[in-house]
Design goal:
Trigger factor, domain 2, extended, Alpha-Beta Plaits, 3 domains, single chain, 49% helix, 431 residues, 14 helices, Chitinase A, domain 3
Length: 431
């Protein structure tokens, strides 16, 4: 086998691979035997046609079968012989085969970048002080109380944020029912026995302001102006007149802070619970500050290392980031049309971010090699178990799904990058 490699661009190589006829003869003869055994040639019984007749009858199929079998084998052999580890196969081209001359083909591959690591020991960082105020603790304490609260019927009070309110409502816009303008959004036209919570996500833009201070039994008139970027296109920029009948009110009743309430938190007093909350907030803030410092480490390493990147890897990362950004925007309530309007901006943002992410990943990988940082099976299993809980499946099932998508290696790489950043922060010069 003869192998020649030439540069074909940044992190891209073109491999020319050629074999002799002797190197492919055994495979060709085996394929020829299969065709002779199973092929049908007019005038001959099955399996009895002469070799030359079979070759003439099935020349094209024989050639294609030989290519399919031999190209992957000699490609892998060439990589091993040359000591090349590709990150992606860009394409195979110019494949030629004959039993007389052998096999010849070209493979375009992307390879990892070759670069010099910057100095990464004792990176200078400045840690911001982490403080937990009494207001922070009170806010978190109130949240704990709300989580343990319940709603009770209370038709005597006036509506305020945090109340559940039962409504009948209907809307008219430009002299006609809203449903005639927006038939695809019937929930915007009218509703019966509809429950809404004041102070949270409004079912109509600005409706809460009209409901606050009203009482059960009141009939409230509200002018609702839909914003220019409203999800329902037919209502954008329009003003509708709504009539809302308040039928019931439920108010949140907070629990009493007693022994029964404190038991699940494994504390014996409200002060002890507040101290636990303070410590948790402190820990969370410190983790956030560690994350910010790791971000600075990443920015430093990228800034100090300039090198070309495999375009196939950048493209793959960019596509993943675009999908993630689109999913996040969709979860925030954006319509397909709104997402399409942002498409160019999303791609531009993802393209730049993907380059930095791929570059940092290569740098961290090299540092991990230098410092013998690796991921144990136990660490991988722990991550799988944690993720499996959030996905509502077993760790073995999640592992199987990741293996099918060839994503397990990516997870190992991500964990190793995290450990490497932990190492760099531990060894940084932090003021």
């Amino acid at each position: 086998m003869n192998v020649k490699i030439e540069d074909a661009g940044p992190c891209r190589k073109l491999m020319h691979i050629a074999t002799t006829s002797d190197e492919v003869r055994e495979d060709y003869d085996e394929l020829l035997g299969w065709f002779r055994k199973g092929g049908r040639v007019p005038g001959f019984r099955k399996g009895k046609a002469p070799t030359k007749v079979i070759e003439a009858q099935y020349n094209r199929d024989l050639t294609e079968s030989a290519k399919e079998r031999l190209v992957p084998r000699f490609y892998r052999a060439a990589l091993e012989e040359q000591g090349v580890t590709p990150v992606a196969i860009v394409g195979v081209q110019n494949v030629e085969f004959s039993k007389e001359s052998g096999l010849a083909f070209d493979v375009m591959i992307d390879v990892p970048p070759d670069f010099k690591l910057p100095k990464y020991a004792k990176i200078s960082l400045k840690r911001k002080p982490v403080d937990v105020s009494d207001e922070d603790v009170q806010k978190a304490f109130d949240s704990v109380l709300e989580q343990q609260s319940r709603f009770e019927d209370d038709d005597d009070g006036t509506l305020e944020d945090g109340n559940l309110v039962k409504l009948d409502y209907s809307g008219v816009c430009d002299g006609q029912p809203v449903k005639e303008l927006a038939p695809d959004a019937p929930e915007l036209d009218d509703g019966n026995d509809f429950w809404a919570m004041l102070g949270q996500r409004e079912f109509l833009p600005g409706v809460d302001a009209s409901l606050r201070g009203a009482s059960v039994g009141d009939e409230v008139k509200a002018e609702i102006t839909f914003p220019e970027d409203f999800a329902t296109e037919a209502l954008r920029g329009k003003t509708a007149a709504y009539t809302l009948k308040i039928k019931a009110r439920r108010a949140r009743k907070l629990p009493e802070v007693n022994e029964e309430f404190l038991k699940p938190f494994e504390v014996d007093s409200e002060d002890a619970l507040r101290q636990r909350i303070r410590e948790d907030i402190q820990k969370n803030h410190e983790q956030q500050e560690d994350g910010r410092l790791k971000g600075e480490i990443g920015e430093y390493l990228v800034k100090k290392s300039k090198f070309d990147l495999p375009q196939s890897v950048v493209q793959q990362e960019m596509e993943m980031m675009v999908r993630s950004m689109v999913e996040r925007i969709a979860m925030q309530g954006a319509s397909r049309e709104q997402i399409e309007q942002q498409q160019a901006q999303i791609v531009e943002s993802a393209t730049e971010a993907s380059k930095e992410r791929v570059q940092l990943s290569y740098i961290l990988s090299r540092i991990a090699e230098e410092e013998s940082i690796s991921v144990s099976d136990e660490e991988l299993d722990q991550r799988l178990e944690a993720m499996a809980v959030s996905y509502g499946m077993t760790a073995d099932k999640l592992k199987s799904e990741l293996e099918k998508r060839n994503a397990l290696e990516r997870m190992q790489s991500d964990i190793r990058d995290e450990k490497t950043l932990d190492f760099l922060l531990e060894n940084a010069k932090v003021k």
